[in-house]
Amino acid sequence: MKRYWMAACGIFGVLLLGCALLVPAHFCAVDADVLEQIGHGQAGAVAPSIIEDGLTYLSLEKLGPAWMLLRAAQSESVSRSDELVAAVARFSHENPSLVALGGSTPLLDKIDLGLADATEPSPIIDVLARRVAREKALVLLETSRRPGVQQMLRNRILTNTVHFPAAVNSGGQALEAAILTAALLNQGDFLSPAFRDAFEWLSMRANKGDNSGSLELVYLDLLSLGRRLDWVSLTELLRQVDGLATLRDLAEAVRANENSPANIVAAALSPGQAGGVAKFLARFPETGVNDVNFALRCGRGAVELLVKKQQRVYYAGVRKQVTGYNPFRAVFFGLFPMAVASHVAALLFKYALLLLAAFCIAHGIGIITAALDLQLGARLAADGVFALVFAFVVAVAIEPFLGLPSQASQFSLRFQIPNLAAAAGITLEPLTTSQMNKLSLVSLIVFFVIQVLIYLWCLTKLSEIRRQPLAARMKLKLIENEDLLFDAGLYVGFVGSVLSLILMSIGVGKISMMAYASTSFGIIFVSVLKIFHVRPLRRQLIMESEVQP
To answer: How buried is residue 404: exposed, middle or buried, by Cβ count under 10 Å (0-12/13-18/19+)?
Structure first.
């Protein structure tokens, strides 16, 4: 009867383990299914989609942001994009004079920039690239009574520039266009207070003779955004930028992803999200844009959750295939609402299931030691230690992105000449893989399995000795004879550590986890074996031998 009970525990543990693997909650990632559910608004309040945001911008005569959202929606095949296409076309047809600058702009409406009717919004730097446009913008700004604007205009006469040719030189049109753009943004109150104060301080220090390198990098970031955004889109984006670091991260993301500027801007235009989007893209420069694109497809709620969590998106391909069939489908959708409602609760539930499953499996494996007649406390302690080790290995194996190196570079790469990288045709290769180092993960699992097999072999040998019809003293001698076998886990662990160090010394991957895991598993399993199995059996046999004649 005891054997059947233990077998049932093992089977029940496997079922619990399957349920734990179906919970869409992770320590280092946001589950794609959860993002999709929240973005579609099926779990509560519905956040507006980028289509609705685009229609709202059009109602405020802001064609540029609506155009950027439309490009993002079309690139990601967002539903109802045709509604925004029709609305943008209708607005452009009815207001041709507003198209070039991206909508109604009272500040620039005061001057004639010589813009003809356009079919789509023009980048503001392209507009200011024309000398007549720069001259008219300068005339407007020179009448400003704002000290900060005047400080920025005085940057035009700097000659000791670091990253740009001086604006007064023949090749200084790029710097002059960036300076005029910044001054116009300041004059129109399109900069947040913290950003404006920091910008004006750098301008003032440069005018007083300090090194202008930091200031020029801010102008370079504005230049990068201005070459891709029309005036109204730039003003809407800069309203959300809370500091120089956010501007730098957004500009870096746009420069690094030339095919997705509209998607980045679409995510950053949401109120209060620009800083989070910039931080996310700076933290994950290789995969961040793909995750943002996925969130945009799902909806604004998904973007907000992604920015809030600051974690990569995990796309569970195998789980999707498994949950296509019952009973896995029923279990998954039974657990799914909890994951959507509370990530913390789902994570706790997942690992509670995992620990319980590990304990049941450990108890089921104990069928091998049924003949040892161990006390309940010792048996539960042994099963508990085994369960913790088993749960740890499973958690490391199933947690996405665990142990991956950071994608963010520790050294910020800047070019002194704008667009040098593009001109040279430089392409940066990805630095990280999409999952944990496979060699480390495989080594962890392999050594765990080896130690489990040795552990089970030792338990089988103990049960065999216990069942033999021999005197207690003879059984003690047999146990003593098997001491080398009982220490085999330690020997294998040491061999694994030495092997991993040898492989690392000859350059076969970074497998330091193999060295630590091999020895650790050996110590744990041998300790459990000797403390909770060998020691109680020896004690029992010693007592029996004293009673026997």
So the answer is: middle
